[in-house]
Structure formats: C-alpha cells, structure tokens
C-alpha cells in the first residue's frame, strides 16, 4: 500500500534526499550542487510502500506561483503508482489552500502523468541539467 506524508522530521527528509540523489544525481547525472537548491523553503513529501521509502516530491512558492518539483521514484518502485500518489496528495493540499497558479517543469517522459492530472504544456521545450523539459500549468 502506498502512503504519502508531508515530511516533518529529519529522518524522513534524509530518506527523501537519498531518493533524489539516486534518481537525479546517479541515474540522470544531474549536478549535485543544483539538486538541493531551494530545499530550505520547500514543503517535502515522502511516499512509502509497506513502510519502505519509495518516492519523494516537493513544492515551493515562487514569484510565479506554486512550483511542484523533484518528483523522484526509486527504480524498484516505478510503475506502481507512486508518482501519481505523490502528485494527487500534493494537489489535494494545494487546492484546499486555494492556490491559484500551480506549475512545474516536466521531464518529457513524465508529461503523460502530469496531463492525466490536469496539467497542460506551455511554451517550447527547454533543457535543465541537459534533460528536455516542458513547463506545465495546472488547468482544472
């Protein structure tokens, strides 16, 4: 069973950082110094499956609105609904807060997931850490 919780302790935050390091720094070879920017002003989430850390994500308020970021799922837990559970939990919270403008920078392979939840591509493809992305805006 997938459970998603807002992180409120250092142990879970360390699990989240370890997941991000594995997915972004090791697998996708993103620069480590870029991986942890804005962590101190972000709200972090940890997804677990049967108590095992499986995925993470965060959001933060920017000058443009609420930006969803750092969706990462460990390879052994992919294709099991972890990213969807994270996204659904975060959106539920933000919509309860009546946040108006919610956006993200989606890696191209993840676009179908975000579209399923009501995000729409905006603008042209761009690159972050040499990975193609689209800006996507929540439109429901």
Could you give the topology of this structure?
Elements: E1 2-6, H1 10-27, H2 32-35, E2 43-49, E3 52-62, E4 65-73, H3 82-96, E5 102-107, H4 111-116, E6 119-128, E7 131-138
Parallel strand pairs: 4-5
Antiparallel strand pairs: 1-2, 2-3, 3-4, 5-7, 6-7
Instruction: Output the structural class.
Output: alpha+beta
Q: Strand count, sense and closure of the main sheet?
A: 7 strands, mixed
Order of helices and strands: EHHEEEHEHEE
Q: Any idea what the CATH architecture is? A: 3-Layer(aba) Sandwich
Strand order in the sheet with the most strands: 1-2-3-4-5-7-6
Strand content range? 35-45%
Indicate the mean pLDDT.
95
CATH topology name, in short, is: Aminopeptidase
What form results from the Cα inertia axes?
globular
Instruction: List segments where confidence is low: pLDDT < 50 over at least 5 consecutive residues.
Output: none
What radius of gyration results from the CA coordinates? 14 Å
Description:
With 140 residues, the chain is α+β, with helices and mostly antiparallel strands. It has a single domain (2-138), classed as Gcn5-related N-acetyltransferase (GNAT) (Aminopeptidase, 3-Layer(aba) Sandwich). The chain is globular and about 35 Å long. Strand 3 (52-62) and strand 4 (65-73) form a beta hairpin. Helices cover 31% and strands 40% of the residues.
Short description:
This protein has four helices and seven strands. Strands 1-2-3-4-5-7-6 form a seven-stranded mixed beta sheet, sandwiched between helices. The chain has helices spanning 10-27, 32-35, 82-96, 111-116; strands at 2-6, 43-49, 52-62, 65-73, 102-107, 119-128, 131-138.
């Amino acid at each position: 069973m997938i459970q998603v919780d807002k992180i409120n302790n250092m142990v879970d935050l360390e699990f989240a950082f370890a997941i991000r390091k594995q997915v972004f720094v090791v697998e996708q070879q993103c620069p480590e110094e870029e991986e942890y920017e804005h962590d101190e002003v972000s709200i972090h989430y940890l997804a677990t499956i049967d108590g095992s850390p499986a995925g993470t994500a965060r959001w933060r308020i920017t000058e443009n609105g609420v930006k969803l970021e750092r969706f990462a799922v460990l390879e052994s837990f992919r294709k099991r609904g972890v990213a969807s559970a994270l996204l659904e939990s975060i959106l539920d919270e933000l919509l309860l807060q009546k946040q108006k403008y919610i956006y993200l920078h989606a890696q191209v392979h993840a676009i179908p997931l975000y579209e399923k939840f009501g995000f729409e591509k905006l603008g042209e493809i761009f690159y972050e850490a040499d990975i193609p992305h689209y800006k996507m805006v929540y439109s429901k």
